[in-house]
Amino acid sequence: MQRIGVFGGTFNPIHYGHLRIAQEVAEAFALSQVKFLPAAKPPLKAEPDVAAKHRAEMVQLAIAANPLFHLDTRELERIGLSYTIDTLISLHAEHPQDALCLIVGTDAFARFDQWHRWQSVLEYCHLIVVSRPHGGSLINLSEPLRQWLQQHQTHNITQLSQQSHGLIAIHDVTALDISSSQIRGLIRTQKNPAYLCPQAVIGYIQQHGLYRD
Ligand code: ATP
Ligand code: MG
Q1: Range of the domain at 172
Q2: Please, are residues 4 and 26 in contact by the beta-carbon 8 Å criterion?
Q3: Would the CA dihedral through 167, 17, 87, 85 be positive or negative?
Q4: Is residue 72 part of a domain?
Q5: Which of 31, 82, 32, 30 shows the shortest CA–CA distance to 55?
Q6: Based on CB atoms within 10 Å of each CB, which residue in 10, 98, 188, 212 is the most buried?
C-alpha cells in the first residue's frame, strides 16, 4: 500500500507556502507522490477571475522539477462545482490498493463542516491538517467538527501506514505566511511578488497579464 498525497486548492496563483507544505508532508508521511488538484469552481469561494487553465499551467511550471509532484486536472474536466468528495471517489477508484492522504491547511479545516458530505471524506482518505500562520485556529471549531476530530485524530504517524483511510493527523510545517491573495494584491499595486512564488510563475503571470485587473 502506497500513500498518495492529494492537495487541492484554487492555486490562484500557486506559491511557496503550497510547495513547502507538499514537500514536508511528503517526507514526514513517506508519500509516494503528491497530486496537485486545481479546483475549477471552488464551492465555498467566488469563482476565480483567472481561468482554471491558467491556474493549472502555473501549478505545472511550479512543480515541474520535482519528481514527487504531479498535476491532476480532473476537477477542470468536470462540470459544476469542484467537490472534493467527487475527486476522492474517482481517485480511490483508480488507486484502490493505496491510501489517499488529503492535505488541508488549518483555515480550510476550520470550515470543513461546510464541505459537501464532509463526514464521508474519511471513507476514502486520511486527512492531514497542516498549520497555517494567521489562518484558522483549531481551538474554536464547531462542536460537530471538534467531536469528529476527536474521534478520528491520531498522534502516531505510523498508524497512517497501517490503515487505508479514516484518520486525521495534525502536522506542524514551517510557518510561511504567504497567500495567493497577498500575491494578487502585490501585482494589482505594481509590486513584485518575487521570492513568494517561483520565478517561472511570475513570468507566466506577466506574459499573460494576469491579476492586473
Ligand atoms: P487565497 O488567498 O486566494 O485564499 P491561498 O493562499 O489560501 O489562496 P488556496 O489555494 O486557497 O491558497 O489554498 C489551498 C490549500 O493550501 C488550503 O488547504 C490552504 O489552507 C493551504 N495553504 C495555502 N497557503 C498556505 C500556507 N502559507 N501555509 C499553510 N497552508 C496553506
Ligand atoms: Mg485560501
Answers
A1: 3-208
A2: no
A3: positive
A4: yes
A5: 82
A6: 10
Q: Which residue ranges have their beta carbon within 6 Å of ligand 1?
A: 9-12, 17-18, 21, 104-105, 107-108, 130, 132, 176, 178-181
pLDDT at 41 over 80: yes
Confidence (pTM): 0.97
**Ligand lying closest to the C-alpha of residue 133:** 1
Q: Write the pLDDT tens digit of every residue in 77-124.
A: 999 999 999 999 999 999 999 999 999 999 999 999 999 999 999 999
124 in a structural domain: yes
Ramachandran sector of residue 64 (left: φ over 0; alpha: ψ -120 to 50; beta: rest): alpha
Residue 94 lies in a domain: yes
- Total domain count, the chain: 1
CATH of the domain at 117: 3.40.50.620
124-168 pLDDT per residue, tens? 999 999 999 887 789 999 999 999 999 999 999 999 999 999 999
CA angle 8/28/170 to nearest 5° reads 65
Q: Classify residue 213: in a domain, yes or no.
A: no
What is the number of other CB atoms lying within 10 angstroms of the CB of residue 41?
A: 18
The reported pLDDT for the residue numbered 135 is: 77
Atom of ligand 1 nearest to the CA of 133: 28
From residue 32, alpha-carbon distances to 14, 142, 161 in Å are 21, 33, 12
Structure confidence at residue 17 as a pLDDT band (50, 70, 90): very high
